[in-house]
Amino acid sequence: MTRTLEVRSGVYVDSVTLMQVSRRVAAVEGVDAALVAMATDLNLDLARGMGFEVPAGVGPNELLVAVDATGDAALAEALRRLDEALHEQRPAPTGFGAPPAALTVRAAARGLDPASAVALVSTPGRHAFSDAVDAVDAGLTTLVFSDNVPVEQEVALKRYAEQDGVLVMGPDCGTAVIGGVGLGFANVVRPGPVGIVAASGTGAQHLMCLLDGAGIGVTHCLGVGGRDLSEAVGGLSTLRALELLDADPDVELVVVVSKPPSPAVAEAVRRRAERLGTPVQLALLGPGRPDLTASAREVARSLGHEWSAPEHWAGAPGRGRPGGFLRGLYSGGTLCDEAMLVAGERLGPIASNIPLDPADALAPGLASRGHTMIDFGDDALTRGRPHPMIDGSLRVERLRAETADPTAGVLLLDVVLGHGADPDPAAGLAGPVQEAVAAGLPVVVCVVGSREDPQDLRRQCGRLTEAGAAVHRSNAAATRAALDLLEPAEEDR
Questions:
Q1: pLDDT tens per residue across span 381-437
Q2: How many CB atoms lie within 10 A of CB 153?
Q3: Do residues 435 and 400 lie in contact, with contact meaning Cβ atoms separated by under 8 Å?
Q4: What is the dihedral of CA 171, 384, 13, 106, to 10 degrees?
Q5: Are the folds of 2-89 and 312-485 the same?
Q6: Please, are residues 258 and 229 in contact by the beta-carbon 8 Å criterion?
């Protein structure tokens, strides 16, 4: 076997591009494994996990190249393919007579009408604040897709924007729909009378897809970032978004969707909602509160629509391993929260990297402990890596590890479709799911998507069902189905 680890200084390439480059290198015949990524702590740990010794002093501004090959020829071809792929990603020079590309947000905003323009900031978290301030100064509605932005900067940015009545969506705003146009991760849903304020990305996607399945459309979905309803941020963007939707004559009902919020902030939102002319429904996850499917059903009833349970397909999961635990591997943080809330009613505390109670936090290595659920989209797992809705490789590794773990009893997964997401997520999951089912480990999957999504909802669900998974379009229903498959230990029967 021939292997190499290179550190290239003075090179920055975004994580999605590097994911594509890594796949091209790994596809070379004779290459067993390849990692091409910025040298963040997470990626350095991945390199060490591949058996490489990482030099001291390597940092996130350097490019890490690790290749395991069967021989010198394969290694040489892999490095040639790497250089070729990186060269292709360089921007083409500006042609003679063409206007120069804008180098700053201020320059790009010149001449735009703030009433109809949106600035989308998607830079590394440490740089996002200054770019977002420039957008706010230009009077633009500002969507900050970037994660890993310190909460202190989020509060400062939103308070600054509040002075001029500018809406800041984010940081870590993964999903928005404005006038029917999706931004970030967005499903193709019908237009309609519902306006959504979302302190949740996948929660908003799930709600919109459930409503779309019931024939109900969305006017706008204003994402505000997952921390907006925390005590630290105080709902600054949520309160502004409520005012904007209330002023829109096309919005007949507003829904506020969020992962578990601060009780004090939730009460402030409720009080503001009561003063609006447009009815507001609060879909705030938490103990004793309705799940997202129940909230969608209530929206349908409020608007006079018929409601039927979301579709599901049985697959062939069988019973869980005797005495085994529930293991949830999620790409969506809000979906993971919802699953923990639903499962916790029956199982008690769930260990997680985003625990509902800090006492249930997993150790840094994220080794499973009893009933466990992991959010692979958490900031700590996306530094220098694409979001798992784009690149599910880390989750696939963990799926295979859980298959080999005799304490795993049932697996629970989510698959999120739509623009921006993996064009064929079932292709990467079908094999590992089939392996798990063959090893006696049932798999239950929630697929979040609409019939018009580019991945083809029916094809994705069919592929996963053929692999042996039970597939549901409701995350709450998928969680309850997984719970029903858990099998007690022989001595507990």
A1: 988 888 899 999 999 999 999 999 999 999 999 999 999 999 999 999 999 999 999
A2: 18
A3: yes
A4: 20
A5: no
A6: yes
Classify 312-485 by CATH class: alpha beta
**CATH dotted code for 105-303:** 3.40.50.261
Backbone φ, ψ for residue 351 (5° rounding): -75, 145
User: Which string of DSSP letters, residue by residue, matches 108-133?
Assistant: HHTT--TTT-EEEE-S-HHHHHHHHH
Which contacts of 351-354 are long-range, i.e. CB under 8 A and separated by 24 or more positions? 353/378, 353/380, 353/381, 354/378
- Note whether 33 and 90 are within 8 A (CB): no
Q: Which two tokens stand for residue 255?
A: 């829904």
Distances 291 to 161, 195, 284, 446 between C-alpha atoms, Å? 32, 19, 8, 14
Distance CA 385, CA 38 (A): 8
| Structural element, H or E, at residue 443 | strand 443-448
Phi–psi pair at 36, nearest 5 degrees: -125, 110
Per-residue pLDDT reduced to its tens digit, 117-172: 899 998 888 889 999 999 999 999 999 998 889 999 999 999 999 999 999 999 99
Instruction: Give Cα separations from 332 to 144, 222, 258, 291, 387 (angstroms).
Output: 18, 18, 13, 15, 10
d(CA 452, CA 444): 23
The span from the CA of 213 to the CA of 215, in Å, is 5
Q: What's the CATH class of domain 2-89?
A: alpha beta
Q: What is the pTM assigned to this prediction? A: 0.87
The residue extents of the domains of the chain are 2-89, 105-303, 312-485
Cite the beta strand spans of 12-129 per DSSP E: 31-38, 63-69, 118-121
Contact (CB, 8 A) for 114 and 140 = yes
Most confident region among 33-42, 79-88, 218-227 by mean pLDDT: 218-227
Query: How do beta strands 194-199 and 175-178 pair?
Result: unpaired
- Give the pairing type, strands 168-169 and 325-330: unpaired
CA distance 315 to 461: 10
- How far CA 391 is from CA of 102, 206, 464, in Å, comes to 30, 20, 17
Q: Which of 421, 491, 481 is nearest to 445 (CA)?
A: 481
Whether the CB-CB separation of 198 and 175 falls below 8 Å is answered with yes
Radius of gyration, alpha carbons of the chain: 23
Residues in contact with 102: Cβ distance below 8 Å, sequence separation at least 6, in sequence order: 108
What DSSP line would sit under 233-270, residue for residue? TTTHHHHHHHHHHHT-TT-SEEEEEESSPPHHHHHHHH
Q: Treating both helix axes as pointing N-terminal to C-terminal, what angle do 393-404 and 425-438 enclose, rounded to 10 degrees? A: 0
